[in-house]
Each structure stands twice: as structure tokens, then as C-alpha cells.
């Protein structure tokens, strides 16, 4: 069974390397590590922020060791220059370490105040270095197996052009926002590069993301409640190659408590596999610290085997001297 699983993963890996249509690393709590959404979110809290996210995807497969992702980011608002700067690090481990993605990016944006009512515009850019590597020794292909399942020889009957590559990539984003709403877009993979271990010519497709949301303040802060009580509605729509993904959700915040529910699907939805997951989020928000946990309830054809996905996010806030119009991002 284990060998058959390895063969299946290897087939998928080689297929997607050939087509170069695989999606980027995506999180169930994108706005709890907002640098993954757009470089325009760097410094959005008008102070400093450090964020860390761990994701264990499809925990029912191979004891939860198959797909693991770590994302860390630090951003800060330079008040004297009306600028946000950020750095982001991502590590993705697939197939129990058979394939690994590591990238590091630097982000910058400039804040433009459009009117006295607190409407802002932030164009942003990102440069990052992407490394992808393959541990070919862990693969066992069908041409290496005897009838009884034993391995006849260690290496398959073909060679890879390379088992690792490092590339430079870039992104551009734009964000319009005030205290009540935000809307923006991101264009990622602006530097096309070949992403194949077999020497094929296909390139990573551009990722286009649309982000937006509305923050409904149904009870303003006062002497009885320190913070606004809100329901935040958000959406993230992404297109990359042949993939189209839509995330829709709502998050309720009262005092230090936060509860949210999201839906993720692939459109146009033609089969049951187009409905991917319902995500339930619970968190605690403090002045300088935020923690949230989410669980993906699979509603696709994998619902009986994947056992869902787990995600934990941590955020630390510092030097928050100027209140941000998007305060729901920083508490």
C-alpha cells in the first residue's frame, strides 16, 4: 500500500511538473498572514507585526506527514516615509519530504491618503527567490518493482534534468481601503520561469488575485466595551493557469473572541469536486497578540480519506502608535 501511494504521488508530481499548472501555496486563514495575499498589506497596521502560520493539509493521509506548510512574515510601517515594508518566508513539504518549496520575499508599498475621511490607496511590489527541490531517492516507480512488490533496482529507468532549481520572481498589487472596506488585486509570477525537473518548456502561469471585504461595526466601542463589535465579510478570488478558486467568509469579533466560517470552492463548479471545503475558525485577540485555529471540513470527493486540514496562526503586534483604519487586521 505504501509503495502504491508513493507511485501515485510520483505520477502526480511528474504530471504537474510537465504541465506547470500547479497552484501556489494557499492558506485557509489568508488574512491572518496577510503578506501572502498582497504586498500592499505590508505595514497595514500602521506599526509592526510578526506572523507565523503552520498548516497540516489532509491529516488523514500518511499520518499527517504528507503535506506541511510553514509561513512566517514580518512587516512594519515607516511613518516618516508613508511606506510599508515586509519580509515573508515560506516552506512547503509535500509527499513526506519528496518535494520541497522554499521561498523568501521582500515587500514594499507606499500609502497615499485620498481624502480627509480616511480613504487610502496602497500600490505594492514584491521580489522573491524561489527554490524547489526533489528527493528522488524516496521515489519508487512501477518499473522498479517485481511481481511480489519487492524493489528490483534503486533507480528508475529515466533521468531528471535537475533535482532542484532556484528562480527570481516578482509581484505587484494595489489596495484601496478605509475603516469599513477594502478592495484590491495582485498580479504574481511577473517574471516567467521554467518550472520542470524534466527539462520541459512550460512556465509557471501568472496568478491573478482579487481581494475585498466589508467591516460591519454593529456596536461601537464605549465605556462598557473597549473594542468595536464587528462582523467582517471577506472574499478572495484567484485565477492561475487552469485553476479558479473562490474563498468567501465572515468573521465575528467581540471583545477578545473571534469566530469565523469560510467556504472554498473551484469554479465554474461542474462536479462535487468543485466544492472543496468549509473552514471553521476560532481565535483570541489581545492588544499585542492574536492566535487562531482553523479546521477544513472537506466537502469534496476526498472527504472520506483526507480527514480535513488543520491550521494555526500567531500574530504579534508592536510599536502600534497610530491607529490603523483597518484596525480589524491588527486585533
Structure description:
The chain has 331 residues and is mainly beta. It has one domain (2-329): Porin (Beta Barrel), CATH 2.40.160.40. The protein is 5% helix and 49% strand. The chain has one helix and 15 strands; from the N terminus they run αβββββββββββββββ. It has one helix at 2-19; strands spanning 48-57, 67-78, 83-94, 99-110, 112-113, 120-134, 164-177, 181-188, 207-219, 229-240, 243-254, 257-266, 275-285, 289-298, 309-318. A 14-stranded antiparallel barrel has the order 1-2-3-4-6-7-8-9-10-11-12-13-14-15. Strand 12 (257-266) and strand 13 form a beta hairpin. The radius of gyration is 21 Å and the shape is globular. The N and C termini lie far apart (47 Å).
Name given to the CATH homologous superfamily: monomeric porin ompg
Question: Which strand-content bin applies to the residues?
Answer: over 45%
Radius of gyration over C-alpha positions, nearest whole angstrom: 21 Å
Approximate shape: globular
| CATH architecture identity | Beta Barrel
Task: Assign the CATH topology.
Answer: Porin
- Unreliable stretches (pLDDT < 50, length at least 5) are 1-20
Helix tally? 1
The string of secondary-structure elements, in order, is: HEEEEEEEEEEEEEEE
- What is the class in the CATH system? Mainly Beta
Strand order of the largest sheet: 1-2-3-4-6-7-8-9-10-11-12-13-14-15
- How many structural domains can be distinguished in the coordinates? 1
Largest β-sheet summary: 14 strands, antiparallel, barrel
Tally of DSSP β-strands: 15
Structural class: mainly beta
The averaged pLDDT comes out at 80
The first-to-last residue Cα distance is 47 Å
Q: What is the helix content?
A: under 10%
